[in-house]
Amino acid sequence: MTQPKDPKGFLVVLPGEIIEIPQDSDKSWLTLFYSLPKELAEKWKPAFDLPRCPYEVLRTDKYDSIVCDDMFKLLVWDCYSWSAWQFFQVKDRKGNYRDIPGDMKQYAGYFPLWRLSYNIIPYIRMKFEQHGLGFQNLYNIPQGVEVPWLTYQQFSNLIGNVTDMVIAEENWQPMIDAIWENRTVEDYETTSSTVYTHNTDLKKRLTAYAERYPDHCTMTDEDSETGYKAFEIEKGRLSFRLTAPYSEERRRAASDYAKKVTSFMQQGD
C-alpha cells in the first residue's frame, strides 16, 4: 500500500509568507476536526473547548493543550475510521456488493479491513486539501468568523464520496474483495456469536429481538430465495438446549397417544 505523496507538509500561502504544516504534527488533524458533525465531536467533551473560529487555534499555542492531547487525535481517527468503514463494499453470497454486515465493533482490531479504515484517513485528509477543505481554507477564515458545524447527513455524504474516490484511485477494491473472501473466525470479536438458520420460528424470534435490541443483536445476512438468515448476537444473550433422541419405546408411546387423540376427535365429528 503506497503512502500519500509529496509534499511532506500542507502549504498555506499568506500575504508575505508561506506556512508549512507538517503532516505528522498535532495541528495537521485540524482540517478533519472542523468537518466533524456535533454528534461525533461530542464523544470527547474537551473538543468543544476549541473555538469554531480557527484563527487563534492555528496561529497561537493557546489551545495546544487540547490539540496536542492524544485523545484529540484519537477522537479524529476513530470518527473517520468508523465513518469510512460504513462505505466499504464487500460481496454477499451471490457476488453482489453490499455494506459490511454487522457493526464495526463485531470485528477484531487486527482484521485487515478494520486496519484499512484507519489507513485511509491520511488519504481523506489529502483529499480535503485538494478540494477546498484544507488548511488554506482554514487560514483564510477571518478572526471572529466561525466554521459552521456540518450536519450528520452532510458529513456522511462527504465521507462517502471521498472514501469512494480514494478506493477507486488507489484501486483498493480487489484488495478489499480478497480480504473479505479470506476472512476467518479470528477476524471477528469473541464478544459475539454468529447464528445461521433456515428455521422459520427462530428467524422470527431473532428478527424481533434484533429490532428491539439492536445493540445486542444484528441481522448480518439474508437469502430470500433459500430462506436463510444470519445474525450476530452478543455472547451471554444466546443459549441452546440439546435433547436426547426419543427411545423406540417412547416413540411407540407417543405414536399410540397421537392415534388415541385422533380417534377421539373423529368421534366428536
Number-wise, the strands total 7
Low-pLDDT ranges: 1-6
Shape descriptor: elongated
Strand order, largest beta sheet: 5-7-6
User: Which structural class should the secondary elements be placed in?
Assistant: alpha+beta
Describe the structure.
With 269 residues, the protein is α+β, with helices and mostly antiparallel strands. It has helices at residues 30-33, 38-41, 55-59, 64-67, 70-85, 112-119, 121-130, 135-139, 152-169, 173-181, 200-212, 248-267, and strands at residues 9-14, 17-22, 89-91, 97-99, 192-197, 217-223, 228-234. The strands form three sheets. Strands 5-7-6 form a three-stranded antiparallel β-sheet, with helices on one face. Strands 1-2 form a two-stranded antiparallel ribbon. A two-stranded antiparallel ribbon has the order 3-4. Helix 5 crosses helix 6 (112-119). The longest helix is centred in the last third of the chain and has 20 residues, at 248-267. The protein is elongated. It starts with 8 loop residues before the first strand and ends with a helix.
SSE layout:
Layout: E1 9-14, E2 17-22, H1 30-33, H2 38-41, H3 55-59, H4 64-67, H5 70-85, E3 89-91, E4 97-99, H6 112-119, H7 121-130, H8 135-139, H9 152-169, H10 173-181, E5 192-197, H11 200-212, E6 217-223, E7 228-234, H12 248-267
Antiparallel strand pairs: 1-2, 3-4, 5-7, 6-7
Task: Describe, in short, the structure shown.
The protein has 269 residues and is an alpha+beta fold. It is built from 12 helices and 7 strands.
